[in-house]
Amino acid sequence: MQIMVNVVDNDDSAVEMLTSLFKRHEVRYRFFNSAQDFLSTPASNIASVTFISDDLPADGMQLVLDRLKLGTTASAIVMTCPGVTPSRIVQAIKAGAEDVLEKPFSSDQVLAIINRVLSSPTVVIHPAHAMPTRMANELTFEEQQILSLMEQGVAIKQIASRMDISVRTVHYRKASILEKTSCNTCTEVIAKLSAMRSHATRPANIQTEGVFYTGGMTTGSDFQPASG
Q1: Is 150 within 8 Å of 159 (Cβ atoms)?
Q2: pLDDT band for position 222 (50/70/90)?
Q3: What digits encode the pLDDT tens for the residues 143-159?
Q4: Percent of the chain with pLDDT over 70
Q5: Which of 21, 157, 189, 218 keeps 20 to 30 A from 36, CA to CA?
Q6: Radius of gyration of the chain from Cα atoms?
Q7: Number of other residues whose CB lies within 10 A of the CB of residue 200
Q8: What is the chain's mean pLDDT, rounded?
Q9: Is 59's pLDDT higher than 70?
């Protein structure tokens, strides 16, 4: 499988380290000093991993993530400064980042991420745990996978193992799920999800000639107006 690695960063030390690493391992790569440089370059049609600095000026990180959302073969990794706050990491995950890599990082960490993307397992969402349209529109596919597993009672460590991501990333994505759904706990999210499914399968009230009746088909004398 071919893969292209993009790096959007103006940190000379990080660029130098990554250049040496990619050349040594014969990885195809492209560097961009700014979000504008990245956005002005035609998108690649092969699978890619894009490492993005979280301190790009003028909301550069968000602009790059928005561009990557348009493709189906791109994975985004946000590189953060040392001592980054958890809220900043949640913001990056919520914006669409697949994972977060805190500087300074090692060559092994970078290669592990690239290898994981190349062999990333897909967690199949069982039809019984499919997301209602409204919630599916709010959550990324990875967040839907995590929520589906949580709904099945799978523990955080097991979720991390099944999805081949870190426990920390699962926690950050869980925090993003809670924020997007305006819930305080996972139990509350699951209850909200159940209520959405129940509402989606409930027969709609239909109004005909001023009389309400609920679901089903009626003919002749079989017709019974709904009470209330």
Answers
A1: yes
A2: very low
A3: 888 888 888 888 888 88
A4: 74
A5: 21
A6: 23
A7: 10
A8: 76
A9: yes
Predicted pLDDT at 61? 82
Task: Judge whether 2 and 47 are in contact, CB under 8 Å.
Answer: yes
The residues facing 6 across adjacent strands are: 30, 50
**pLDDT score recorded for residue 68:** 74
Three-state DSSP string of the chain: CCEEEEEECCCHHHHHHHHHHHHHCCCEEEEECCHHHHHCCCCCCCEEEEEEECCCCCCHHHHHHHHHCCCCCEEEEEEECCCCCHHHHHHHHHHCCCEEEECCCCHHHHHHHHHHHHCCCCCCCCHHHCCCHHHHHHCCHHHHHHHHHHHCCCCHHHHHHHHCCCHHHHHHHHHHHHHHCCCCCHHHHHHHHHHHHHHHHCCCEEEECCEEEECCCCCHHHCCCCCC
For 44, the token pair is: 């690649």
**Whole-number pLDDT of residue 209:** 42
How far apart are the C-alpha atoms of 138 and 145, rounded to whole Å? 13
How many CB atoms are located within 10 Å of the residue 133 CB?
A: 10
| pTM for this entry | 0.58
At a CB cut-off of 8 Å and minimum separation 6, what does 36 contact? 60
Q: Can you state the angle between helices 167-180 and 186-201, rounded to 10 degrees? A: 50
The sign one gets for the Cα dihedral 64, 66, 71, 72 is: positive
Q: Which domains does the chain have, with CATH numbers?
A: 3-118 (3.40.50.2300), 127-201 (1.10.10.10)
Q: Any idea how long the chain is?
A: 228
